[in-house]
Design brief:
0% strand; 142 residues; single chain; 5 helices; mainly alpha
C-alpha cells in the first residue's frame, strides 16, 4: 500500500526534508528553554553581584530561541500542508482518471455516491495522515 502511494510523493522530498528540519529546530528550541531558565535561576541564587546583566542577556537568548522555534514551527506547518495538498491532488487526479476509464459495466456496478465518497473522504483522510506524519512523527521521539 505504501509503495503504491509513494509514487505520488515524487518531487516533494525537498519539501519533506524542510518540514522535518523545521520540526527538529522547533523541538530543539523548546527543549533548550527550561535548561537556560534553570541556569538563570542557579546563577541568580548563587551570585549576588551583577546578575541583572546576565539575566537580561539570557532572557534575550531565550527570546531568540522562542522566535527561532516559532519560525521552525511555521515552516513545518506550511511545508507539510503544501506536501499533503499536492499529494492528495495527485491521488484524486489518478483516481478520477481511473474512474473515467471504467467500462459501462463497472460504472453500473459502483454507485455514484460510493465513487464520490472515495474521491473526497478517503483521500482527505490520507491527506491528513501525510500532514500529521510530517508534523508529529518527527516530534514524537522527543
Amino acid at each position: 500500500m505504501v509503495r503504491k502511494l509513494a509514487k505520488y510523493m515524487k518531487g516533494m522530498v525537498p519539501l519533506c526534508l524542510l518540514s522535518i528540519s523545521g520540526m527538529i529546530i522547533e523541538a530543539m528550541c523548546e527543549l533548550s528553554l527550561p535548561s537556560i531558565a534553570n541556569n538563570i535561576y542557579n546563577s541568580v541564587s548563587t551570585q549576588g553581584t551583577d546578575t541583572k546583566g546576565y539575566v537580561l542577556k539570557m532572557g534575550a537568548v531565550m527570546l531568540g530561541l522562542a522566535v527561532l522555534g516559532l519560525v521552525g514551527g511555521l515552516v513545518t506547518m506550511k511545508t507539510s500542508s503544501i506536501v499533503s495538498q499536492r499529494f492528495s491532488y495527485r491521488v484524486r487526479e489518478a483516481m478520477y482518471e481511473k474512474i473515467s476509464a471504467f467500462s459501462f459495466k463497472n460504472i453500473d456496478q459502483f454507485s455514484t455516491s460510493s465513487l464520490t465518497t472515495r474521491l473526497t473522504n478517503d483521500v482527505t483522510t490520507i491527506q491528513n495522515l501525510v500532514m500529521m506524519c510530517l508534523r508529529i512523527l518527527v516530534r514524537a521521539p522527543s
